[in-house]
Design a protein that fits this description.
Strand content: under 5%
Distance between the termini: 28 Å
Helix content: 55-70%
Number of helices: 9
CATH architecture: Orthogonal Bundle
Shape: globular
Number of strands: 0
Radius of gyration: 17 Å
Order of helices and strands: HHHHHHHHH
Number of domains: 1
């Protein structure tokens, strides 16, 4: 799996446009929560990411509203990058206050890694060597892949049903820790973009699980 690029693309041409939108949202969030390069910063600062997320959300079967101000608090790339490092990578003497690896929110990170690798391998995928398998950007890309496969599957087919179950299972077992991360981020009084990102993602994950459970 590779990390997503800024601009998740359109959802046209799918047998199921809802799952196409879901796939694009997961890819967009994966990119947004990855280490920011200048391309992402410019995309966020210009309002491109917020517009993209809003357009994709309009295709969903549930209501998901993004706050209007999704730009960085400071229009400075170095400050934006430093904020990411402060929140998610280095932090203080005790390390990152908001780690992005799901294994760090479990009792046994090794077991988490093994379970994730089994998930990825079952679907013929593997994480890039530059990312640990439990990095949330990788997990979101995996969900994007599954949703993309659902978008192209024949509706009500056995494949469509299996893909839906796989997504529900992955959300329940491997992404249930996101609300804890979101709470930690908000407690750090972050720049505007990261506060909005973790909050809207928390809402999306909860609503998406409800959708998959119907």
């Amino acid at each position: 799996m590779s990390t997503a690029t800024a601009g998740a693309g359109t959802v046209s041409g799918h047998a199921n446009p809802v799952d196409g939108a879901r796939a694009a949202i997961y890819a967009s969030v994966a990119r947004a929560i990855s280490f920011p390069d200048e391309e992402l910063f410019d995309f966020v600062k210009s309002g491109g990411w917020s517009r993209e997320f809003g357009d994709l959300s309009a295709e969903l079967p549930f209501r998901l509203t993004l706050a209007k101000n999704g730009s960085p608090t400071k229009n400075d790339y170095d400050a934006f990058q430093s904020e990411y490092i402060r929140l998610f990578e280095i932090g203080g003497r005790n390390g990152s206050p908001c780690p992005l690896h799901s294994g760090q929110y479990s009792r046994d990170r090794l077991q988490t890694l093994e379970d994730l690798l089994r998930f990825y391998t079952f679907f013929g995928l593997r994480a890039k060597t530059s990312f640990m398998p439990d990095h949330v950007a990788v997990e979101f890309e995996f969900m994007s892949y599954l949703a993309q496969q659902s978008a192209q599957a024949v509706p009500d087919s056995a494949d469509a049903h299996s893909l839906r179950l796989a997504q529900r299972d992955f959300l329940t077992r491997r992404l249930a820790w996101w609300p804890e991360l979101a709470g930690r981020v908000r407690g750090q009084k972050p720049q505007t973009f990261y506060r909005i990102l973790v909050t809207i993602t928390e809402k999306f994950l909860g609503l998406d699980l409800q959708y998959l459970s119907q």
